[in-house]
Amino acid sequence: MRISKVKGFLLALLFAVTLGAATSVQVTADAATYTTVASKNVKKTAYHKKSTKGAIYNQAHNRRIATMKGYPNTTWYVTKQATFKHGNSKGIYLYVANKAGSVKGWIWHGYLTKGKAPFGLKYAKNAVALDYTTGKAVWSKSANTPRPIASVSKIMTLYLVLDKIENGSGKWTDVVKTSDRGLVAMGNSASCGGFRFYSNHKYTVKELYDAALLDSSNNAAIALGQWVAGSNAKFIKMMNAQAKSWDLDRASFVSASGLENSDLQAFGYRYGKANANMVSAKDVALIARHLIQDYPRVLTDGSVGSKKVNGQLCYNYNNMLPGRKYYKSSLQVDGLKTGYTPLAGYCFVGTGQKTGKHRVITVVLHDENEFTETQSLMNHAYSLGMNA
């Protein structure tokens, strides 16, 4: 093989790796082509990947359709079997297609095993589906491993706000101090703010509650924490004490808002030695369960799409609510909280109650497609039972 041909072949392989699993890639080589020795139709049968090895090709084997690594939880349906000859060797290949029929081609039989693919989430690093009624996890993925949870942390902050109002030591109409220089600066920050504290307005608990729940306002969450406990440090101690009282051993807080200390330091709100709140997916789900059980109004409050607070639009980024891109009427999602920082990735704790089923609480942490994967997780949880 001449050097120019070697370079061309290597470039083709490099593009194949770079473009990803779902991309059809032209692969040319000087090796003997694949020829069909025999072929037959077979009864449609479900298969799934045996490992991350293997790829699907066209029949001539000069175009790669997809890799098994790129489709870790896909069920493939086999309808044909063939013997291909390549050089001096022969092998049995299967013609496969995914359920939608959008990806199809030939793969060596040794890369697959019979049966439907087990359920899994491709992107979320940690996840759980919790039966709200029983408090038991019905499905999980590394659910006991603590990791940063970004603004999902606010469900604990809002629990303690609601608790103070419920026990009579605070009112919705109480005015919250918002003049701290750090809080004002945070509201003006493009990366850490968005909700502004204006000096000519006195913000109430209810206004900041709406800003924190719907708009995920970081300065509103911190100001509320100071209103609850008297200082930021005292409030974070309350957060940890509350987690301990619920026996949540995989929850540790250093921030009322979910921002990491690396961001909070610039505004004077760094607390503790750790950089971030570290909470497991299961403990997040259990915090959400306590919040809904004790203060069910959070579902009504959290299902509002958007609301103006002192003239500022507070937009709810839960895109599984009615009217949003990922809304599914069968799932009846009515909450609860999104979160994102570069460290934590996209996080989402969702909840809904399908007709005839128990309410489900789902958590996905460090995801890339948090709403799509939450849809899949909720549907899978319901497929396991959870009957009312």
Automatic annotation (TrEMBL):
Keyword Protease on entry: yes
Domain Peptidase S11 D-alanyl-D-alanine carboxypeptidase A N-terminal as annotated: residue spans: 124-368
Segment forming the signal sequence: 1-21
InterPro entries named among the record's database cross-references: Beta-lactam/transpept-like, Peptidase_S11, Peptidase_S11_N
Keyword Cell membrane: no
Organism this protein belongs to: Levilactobacillus tujiorum
Pfam family of the protein (one): Peptidase_S11
Protein name (database record): D-alanyl-D-alanine carboxypeptidase
Similarity-based family: Belongs to the peptidase S11 family.
Protein keywords: Carboxypeptidase, Cell shape, Cell wall biogenesis/degradation, Hydrolase, Peptidoglycan synthesis, Protease, Signal
